[in-house]
Structures are given as structure tokens and as C-alpha cells.
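Exercise 7b. C-alpha cells:
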């Protein structure tokens, strides 16, 4: 079965980091840290403080990895180039040892990607724009036409894209709509001679579902990488099992408002990291994007009569 290179987005924790980094490297992956969506406070001042603390922590973890000053396979997701947080992110990249990759989120124009490629140091192995909005899809061909030796791959951010497109419930990897988006990205990437990194699977304890997702990824020639959020998924990328048959794609039919109310309750009960993400009792990650979309549904006037929601 096709294998994908894992890009493992990990918590920033000093305890056991060197051993954890070694396990990810043994699986052929990169340890990546997020400075964007997962670092959000209730107000602008708190967000700035949290991001500054995250940068200091990442610098400390990087210093643990011997030998110093040589590439060690770390990756970072920065804040967007038009964000006030981008300049200090850039300063961090310049002080770190050479990075395997840097993700540039919410790229919607070739100019945004060109800016990052121009400003990031040459020690960065790969600069990966993340396509995660309707505007980004509309500019996909122009973004892929940017020429730079560090730009060899793009990534898909499906939670942001669902929110941008006004979807609820979100289309995750169990939805045919998700794979239609991947088909569009794959075709564009192949035309441009670029590679594609798949969006993360949010059900962390469902290895069978992850194996089925890997099987769905197999036909897409440009799809060579997988963003992961747990060590089990990272290891499965390197040694994918034969997928077992699973349930029909998509959730059971129910009203959008009932789905939204349930998701809001789960998010607020299990939120993590100052409210940025939640991880519920089933080890399912709930993104702030889907939470925002669910709240939007609940704030809208209720339809009369309520229509069932199916894919």
C-alpha cells in the first residue's frame, strides 16, 4: 500500500521530547510545532503572550536536539504573512538550526507565498503554503505557478476550508465532498509538478478509520505527505495496514441545529489550550473552526420545518 511521509504536529512539552522526536524520525516523519491556530487566547494581549511563550519553548526544545546547528527534521507552522505575529515568527526561524519545513497558513495569493519565500532563510528545507479558503482555491493555479527551489509541496487545511465555504457539519475524510476537494488539489499539483500533503484526521483513537483514509489517498499521485496528530497515525503512515470495511460515509441524518448544539457542548466541556481546540472523551479533536460554524448555525433563525441534514 502507498506510504505517506508524516508531518506530526506535537504539543510543545520538554519532558521526554528527545525520545519522542526519535520515535517520529524512526517512522520517517518530521516533528512540527504550531504557532498559529492552536495558540489563541481570549483577547489580543493574551494571544500575543501565549505566542511569545510558545516561541521560547520551541527554541528550548530545539536546543535539546544534538548535534547543535545541524538539520534535525523540525517543522513550524507560522502565522500568516499579513499577521502581526508573523515578524516574531520569522525572527524565531532565523535563530533556529536549519528546519525541515515551514508551513505558511491561509495562503490566498501568489504574493503572500512569494513574500514568505523571499523572507524565510535559505536554511529552511521546504516552504509549504497551506490552502484553506475559498479564495485560496480560486487562486490555486497562480499560487502553484510561483517558482522557488524551496516550494515543492502544498498542504490542505480542511477545517479552515469548511468554515470559509460556510459548511456545517464539516466535511472530514469520511465525506465524498472532502475527496472531491483533494481531487481538485491533486490535479492542480500534478500539472504544476508539485506534491500535496493531506489534512489531519481528527479521530485519534480510530486506527481502522485512519487505514481506510490511507487507502482512499492511494490513487492521488501528488499526495505524498500526511499531517498527523498522534504517534499511532504517524506510525501507520510508514506501515499502512490493509483497511477493514467500515460504516457508510457520513453521519446519520439529523437536524443541523441538533448537530451544532451537540458539538458546542462537547467543545466547551473538553476545550484545551486556552480554548483553541478541544479533545473529547472519544479522543476526537474538535477544531475552533467547526465550533465557530456550529455557533453560527445556532445563532441563525431556526428553519421551519427543520430539514434533516445528510451529506
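Sequence design result:
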Amino acid at each position: 500500500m502507498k506510504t505517506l511521509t508524516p508531518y506530526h504536529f506535537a504539543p510543545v512539552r520538554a519532558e521526554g521530547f528527545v525520545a519522542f522526536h526519535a520515535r517520529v524520525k524512526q517512522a520517517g516523519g518530521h516533528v512540527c510545532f504550531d504557532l498559529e491556530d492552536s495558540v489563541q487566547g481570549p483577547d489580543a494581549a493574551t494571544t500575543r503572550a501565549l505566542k511569545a511563550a510558545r516561541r521560547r519553548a520551541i527554541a528550548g526544545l530545539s536546543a535539546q536536539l544534538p548535534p547543535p546547528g545541524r538539520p534535525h527534521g523540525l517543522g513550524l507552522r507560522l502565522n500568516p504573512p499579513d499577521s502581526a505575529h508573523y515578524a516574531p515568527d520569522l525572527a524565531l526561524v532565523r535563530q533556529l538550526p536549519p528546519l525541515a519545513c515551514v508551513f505558511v497558513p491561509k495562503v490566498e495569493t501568489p504574493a503572500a507565498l512569494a513574500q514568505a519565500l523571499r523572507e524565510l532563510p535559505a536554511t529552511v528545507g521546504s516552504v509549504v503554503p497551506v490552502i484553506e479558503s475559498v479564495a485560496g482555491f480560486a487562486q490555486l493555479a497562480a499560487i502553484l505557478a510561483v517558482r522557488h527551489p524551496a516550494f515543492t509541496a502544498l498542504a490542505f487545511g480542511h477545517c479552515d476550508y469548511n468554515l470559509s465555504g460556510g459548511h456545517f457539519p464539516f466535511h472530514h475524510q469520511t465525506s465524498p465532498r472532502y475527496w472531491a476537494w483533494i481531487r481538485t488539489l491533486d490535479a492542480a499539483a500534478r500539472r504544476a509538478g508539485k506534491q500535496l500533503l493531506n489534512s489531519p484526521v481528527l479521530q485519534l483513537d480510530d486506527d481502522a478509520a485512519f487505514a481506510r483514509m490511507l487507502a482512499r489517498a492511494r490513487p492521488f499521485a501528488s499526495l505524498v505527505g500526511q499531517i498527523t496528530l498522534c504517534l499511532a497515525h504517524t506510525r501507520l503512515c510508514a506501515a499502512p495496514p490493509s483497511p477493514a470495511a467500515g460504516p457508510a460515509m457520513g453521519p446519520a441524518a439529523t437536524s443541523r441545529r441538533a448537530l451544532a448544539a451537540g458539538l458546542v457542548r462537547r467543545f466547551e466541556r473538553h476545550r484545551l489550550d486556552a480554548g483553541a481546540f478541544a479533545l473529547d472523551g472519544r479522543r476526537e479533536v474538535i477544531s475552533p473552526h467547526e465550533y465557530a460554524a456550529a455557533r453560527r448555525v445556532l445563532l441563525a433563525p431556526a428553519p421551519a420545518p427543520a430539514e434533516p441534514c445528510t451529506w
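Instructor comment: The two ends are 28 Å apart (CA to CA). The mean pLDDT is 91.
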